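Bumping my old thread because nobody answered last time. Still need a sequence for this structure:
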């Protein structure tokens, strides 16, 4: 599979799981408001859940679509994509 297509799929997977995980974690565990004046329903727990879910999705997608990728790509994808999403 072409490298650019793999990276695009990884980016979409990480973005989707970041949003979904943030919503689920915020609903289930959310207690501490992140920025009440900007968005009253966002929580620190949801943000952490989103980053964790997005990182897991990025790593899983990379492992499935591009086995043997460099560790640097995995770190950038796992840390950078959820934060950017």
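Sorry it took so long. Here it is:
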């Amino acid at each position: 599979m072409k490298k650019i297509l793999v990276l695009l799929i990884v980016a979409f997977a990480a973005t989707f799981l970041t949003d979904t995980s943030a919503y689920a974690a915020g609903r289930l565990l959310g207690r501490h408001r992140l920025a009440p004046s900007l968005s009253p329903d966002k929580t620190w727990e949801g943000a952490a859940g989103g980053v964790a879910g997005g990182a897991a999705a990025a790593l899983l997608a990379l492992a499935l679509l591009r086995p043997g990728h460099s560790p640097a790509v995995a770190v950038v994808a796992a840390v950078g994509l959820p934060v950017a999403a």
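DSSP finds three helices and two strands in the chain. Let me know if any region looks off to you.
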